[in-house]
Specification:
Mean pLDDT: 85
Helix content: 25-40%
Low-confidence stretches: 1-10
Order of helices and strands: HEEHEEHHHEEEHEH
Structural class: alpha+beta
Radius of gyration: 19 Å
Distance between the termini: 30 Å
Strand content: 15-25%
Length: 265
């Protein structure tokens, strides 16, 4: 059985993904995000990713892997099933989120439109408790209208994430999302699933909102081919791009050279 301890014995494990467009090898940062690495490796070892497809492809931005191929027309791709309790191994202070302001009035207005109120409606729809901070923001919005946006001026991103109900472990990866990073795909802390995001460029807007747990060791030609494939208006590949197989390589095998990645750079 794979575990964080197994993953961190003698170095970092790797995950080799054979896709329709080439091979990718991901080096997983077991020291930075042991629980996330353990979960992803266990899923791969159990065959969860075999036969899955590319969920989303944004040329020059990122690709997301790990969706089920059976999707009805117009339906959003469903992620490979993942056990409950997916961890958020993020250290927001290491990323400076306690010092990063939310932005000016325009950015804050967008937060209300695209994040705060939709988040509130989503929790209501799912029958989940609304965090006190989020309920307070909604109450201000109803009482004061657009003037309520000023409550966020000067606040940090960490304050904001706590206010809308996200907590973090004492220890986390503290890694920013940069070109070649391997990260959880969800932009909502606490809602990560089995999808794998690979950054094709720096994505600072995801810092502190996705757990970074590895980087691309080889396979950039395959990533370029995936990113270049035609997509629909929702950035889904028009023709499915399959992950034919996903095989974890133990850290000890990487360290002693008994397993060699034959993929390209």
């Amino acid at each position: 059985m794979w575990s964080a301890a197994t993953a961190d014995s003698g170095g970092n494990p790797r995950l080799v993904l054979d896709t329709d467009l080439g091979r990718l090898t991901l080096e997983l940062a077991a020291d930075a995000a042991p629980r996330t690495v353990s979960r992803v490796v266990a899923l791969a070892a159990g065959g969860a990713y075999d036969g899955s497809v590319v969920c989303e492809s944004r040329a020059g931005g990122f690709v997301v892997l790990g969706c089920l191929p059976e999707t009805l027309p117009g339906e959003a791709p469903k992620a490979v099933p993942s056990p409950a309790g997916w961890p958020d191994e993020i250290d927001p202070r290491a990323l400076g989120l306690d010092r990063r302001p939310l932005g000016g009035p325009r950015e804050i207005d967008l937060l209300w439109q695209l994040e705060i109120y939709p988040r509130y409606l989503e929790l209501l729809e799912r029958g989940e408790p609304v965090p006190p901070g989020l309920a307070g923001l909604i109450a201000r919005l109803r009482a004061e209208g657009t003037a309520a946006t000023r409550i966020l001026l000067g606040k940090s991103r960490l304050w904001y994430l706590h206010a809308i109900g996200f907590d973090y472990p004492l220890r986390g990866s503290g890694l920013p999302v940069r070109r070649g990073s391997v990260a959880t795909a969800s932009v909502w802390p606490g809602e990560a699933d089995a999808r794998i995001l690979i950054a094709l460029t720096d994505l600072p807007e995801r810092d502190g909102r996705a757990t970074v747990y590895g980087h691309v060791a080889s396979g950039w030609p395959a990533l370029a081919a995936i990113a270049a494939a035609p997509v629909d208006k929702d950035h889904r590949p028009r023709e499915p791009i399959r992950i034919r197989s996903a095989a974890p390589i133990a850290a000890t095998a990487v360290a002693n050279g008994t397993v060699r990645d034959p993929g390209g750079s």
